[in-house]
Amino acid sequence: MKAKEYLAILQKTSEVLGEAIHIVDAEGRTIVYNDAMARLEKISVEDVLGKPFREVFPHIPQEESTLYRALAKGEASASEPQTYLNVYGKAITTVNSTVPVEVDGKIIAAIEVAKDITEIKNMSDTILGLQEESLVSAGKVDSKKELKPAIKRYTFDSLIGTTSEFAKAIGIARKASGTDASVFIYGETGTGKELFAQSIHYDGSRKNNPFLAQNCAALPAALLEGILFGTSKGGFTGAVDRAGLFEQANGGTLLLDEISAMPYELQSKLLRVLQEDYIRRVGGSSDIPVDVRIIATVNERPEKLIERGTLRKDLYYRLNIVNINIPPLRERKEDIPLLAEIFLKNHNVRYGKELWMISDRALKKLDEYDYPGNVRELENIIMSAVSLADNEHVLNEKDVNTGSGYHQPPQRISDFHENESSLSQYMERIEKTVIRRHLLDNEGNVSKTAKELGMLRQNLQYKIKKYDL
Ligand SMILES: Nc1ncnc2c1ncn2[C@@H]1O[C@H](COP(=O)(O)OP(=O)(O)OP(=O)(O)O)[C@@H](O)[C@H]1O
Ligand SMILES: [Mg+2]
Q: 375, 383, 408: which to mutate for ligand 1, most atoms within 8 A of CB?
């Protein structure tokens, strides 16, 4: 078979596969380039096929190009995010896997398979932008030292519980707040990990600096690195210069939720950062000193996670300087009456009711339940009981609905909801949440809110109508 025929077969195969594929020969000339790749790079197949790769993509410095590295050095790379400009100057972010093809010890070609994550990347930029923005707007000052984060602040006063295991956890946390040591918290969902983390921060010397949180399971692995460490224009003309959470939380505390969801390599990068106290932005070349206290959480036993290979042992030991175990609610049922009473008081106010007490039978019912969603679930049960109760002063057994199953934890705005099938649905929910939050802060003042959000008043009004806010 002639070379030309082989190429035709390859080209067709790549089209049938549907993945975006780009193959260059030893000279860096494109020999296969399919429609999927053309769509991704917003360029036509004819513009690339048969041409020297460097001529078509002059913006990409050689040493940054995975195809070039595969050809010149025989380097394979897997799932590397790359941002670059296409011929029309449009920034595109892809996750690439690139392999050299070797025959008789000579590299004769390089193959690249790419996934377009431009939209996901824009989303992560949006999330970082929102974090930044909420810090600045909450601080209402531009001096970095005086920034106040916009998240709800919890202190040790918010932590309710008297059973010995729980009291022990609080004791350790109180001690930890007086130091700068990393903290590792283990507790099931809804046991109060965030409350502990915030209490430690706001009771310590970092309290006037930012407290930021990131759930490591909520973002695609390829983007987490950029979120944490920031991105730099560096070699890529298309990448934006942006500080990551480490820089944004400088002087303060960074809560890393579900740390075991972080990709294994990134865990070792994090370990290095913790040992050396500086970060390097993705694509950047300078070391930036950071001073950030880390609080990490997991909702499964760390030993199990290490055994399963999702949590690095070395990182665990580095973080586990202070170790806090929060017992699940079913193991401290003595705390239920106290917690229920406090939630009753709080939600009374919220619903304009005057419920004074919880009946013994209602308490018994609360005691018999297992609470897979822990304290958060108990709070939800009391909240719905308060809103439904028809007796004026007593919360009765029939108001307490423990049978409705697991009350799902509320999701952070950065988490995908299961029913969100498209990015635009997701973005709309973020937009709605942010607008509502700012409107509430400004007591419904549209002009002020529009100014804060940097949008036109008319535009904001349109959104308020659209989202029915
Ligand atoms: N000890 C406690 N005292 C009072 N309220 C509590 C306590 N623990 C949890 N809560 C309530 O439960 C809610 C959930 O707590 P938190 O967000 O800290 O849980 P979490 O462990 O971080 O859960 P997840 O793993 O789902 O993120 C809090 O908003 C708070 O209202
Ligand atoms: Mg949490």
A: 375
Determine the atom of ligand 1 nearest the C-alpha atom of 326: 21
Domain that holds residue 449: 423-467
More confident residue, 307 or 407: 307
- Structural contact between residues 184 and 260, judged by C-beta atoms closer than 8 angstroms: no
| Mean pLDDT (whole number) for 364-379 | 93
- Identify whether residues 138 and 280 lie together within a single domain: yes
pLDDT at 461 over 50: yes
More confident residue, 414 or 395: 395
Which bound ligand lies closest to the C-alpha atom of 154?
A: 1
Q: What is the CATH number of the domain that holds 284?
A: 3.40.50.300
- Per the listing, tokens 């100014």 go with 451
Which residues are within 8 A (CB) of 424 and not within 5 positions of it... i.e. 6 or more apart? none
In this structure, the residue with its CA closest to atom 25 of ligand 1 is 189
Residue owning the nearest CA to atom 29 of ligand 1: 376
**Rounded-to-integer distance, Cα 286 and Cα 265, Å:** 20
| pLDDT tens-digit map of 239-298 | 667 888 999 999 999 999 999 999 988 999 999 999 999 999 988 888 999 999 999 999
**Number of the ligand 1 atom closest to the C-alpha atom of 258:** 25
Paired sense of beta strands 106-116 and 91-103, if any: antiparallel
The SS3 assignment for 294 reads strand
Distance 378 CA to ligand 1 centre (A): 10
Helix pair 221-229, 118-139: axis angle to 10 deg: 30
User: In ligand 1, which atom is closest to the CA atom of 152?
Assistant: 29
Cα angle value 106/108/113 (rounded, 5°): 125
Q: Give me the CATH number covering residue 65.
A: 3.30.450.20
Widest CA span in the chain: 90
Name every protein residue with a CB atom under 6 angstroms from any ligand 1 atom: 158-161, 187, 189-195, 299, 375-376, 379, 409
How far apart are the CA of 468 and the centre of ligand 2, in A?
29
Which one has a higher pLDDT value, 423 or 388?
Answer: 388
Regarding whether 135 and 193 lie in a shared domain, the answer is: yes
Residue 20 CA to ligand 1 center (angstroms) comes to 44
Amino acid, single-letter form, for residue 429: R
Q: Which residue intervals of 214-359 are DSSP H helices?
A: 221-229, 245-248, 264-276, 302-308, 313-319, 336-351
